[in-house]
Amino acid sequence: MTGLVLKLNPGERVLVNGAVIENGDRRSRIAILTPNANILRLRDALHPSEADTPVRRVCYIAQLVLSGDADPRAASKQLLSGIEQLSQVFRDDDSREFLNGATLAVVEGEFYRALKLLRNMLPREVRLFSTGAEPR
Question: In terms of Cα–Cα distance, which of 62, 59, 52, 63 is closest to 129?
Fold first, then answer.
């Protein structure tokens, strides 16, 4: 089986191509076979007021594409610019790997994968802001 496999908890909601789908009473797995389907776990969704840091803003742009609220072409330019700015700050090897992967995903039009990779940067950003230290 190819495609994206979502593992959903009871009652968990997911947005698929603009339609909100809610899981039933049991854990389940859903295979999304359609290439380039727009998928967003609502538990991972950022409220606009939460897009208040550089990494969160870039994640929010990817989220807007997945929810159907932004044009993928215009958003791609913003995402690539934002990722480039993040790469100027996060210089460690792990961060570079996530950011390079996110760049490739955006170029390939895979916004779910880009968002997933960018979300790995959130804890790093929190640590950076809490310590006030330069990233390695």
Answer: 52
